From TrEMBL:
Protein name, per record: VanZ family protein
Keyword Membrane annotated: yes
Species this chain originates from: Streptomyces tropicalis
Transmembrane segment boundaries: 12-35, 69-86, 98-117, 129-149
InterPro entries the UniProt entry points to: Teicoplanin_resist-assoc, VanZ-like
Phylogenetic placement of the source organism: Bacteria, Bacillati, Actinomycetota, Actinomycetes, Kitasatosporales
Region described as Disordered: 155-175
Signal sequence interval, chain numbering: none
Length: 193
């Protein structure tokens, strides 16, 4: 039985499997990049003031600020595409999909930041959380709506005319009247002649 709004047939399996495999590979890469110990002589204190690091980077000038800001945006940005691909649904609201994906990206970013507190040379930074979450949202908005529209068009072209992948319900579901249990009777059963 196919879930309502999901991609049909083999395309669903391929998209979900590819999305899942790429998602696991990307998370492994993120873990390797962010949770390796660094051999540094000095570590700055943790930044808990929003946008303080971004302002400090922008104060350096544009070419120097582009690298740390770009790294912050790009680290988890693929999740904006891979999470909906692993979910495999075509007919969902843009806002609902965006909220779920961004929330998952933000939670993953918080998890990475918490794990980094135990790694030598790594420091938690609230601006990294903000940039990672913004990167997930931007990637989702840039790719997912257009990809879903394209996949819906392809599914409509391949679907038989009698089967509609999306549409209103076909009518009311028939119901069966409930039959109660007969009341207990003290009368003897009828005798056979």
């Amino acid at each position: 039985m196919q879930r309502q709004g999901s991609i049909g047939g083999f395309a669903a399996i391929h998209v979900r499997v590819a999305g899942g495999v790429l998602l696991v590979a990307h998370l492994a890469l993120v873990a390797w990049l962010t949770l390796r110990p660094l051999d540094v002589p000095w570590v700055p204190p943790a930044n808990l003031r929003p946008l303080a690091t971004v302002r400090a980077d922008l104060a350096l000038g544009w070419p120097e600020a582009a690298r740390p800001l770009g790294e912050g945006l790009a680290l988890l940005a693929p999740l904006g595409v891979l999470l909906p691909a692993a979910h495999g649904r075509l007919h969902v609201s843009l806002l609902g999909s965006l909220v779920r994906t961004v929330a998952a990206g933000a939670l993953l970013s918080v998890g990475v930041a918490l794990l980094q507190t135990a790694v030598p040379g790594r420091v938690a930074d609230v601006d990294t959380l903000l940039l990672n979450t913004a990167g997930v949202a931007l990637a989702h908005l840039a790719v997912v709506p257009a990809a879903r529209v394209r996949l819906r068009r392809r599914a409509r072209r391949r679907a038989p005319t009698a089967v509609r992948p999306e549409g209103p319900a076909q009518g009311r579901t028939p119901t069966i009247a409930r039959v109660g249990i007969a009341p207990w009777s003290d009368a003897p059963p009828p005798s056979a002649p």
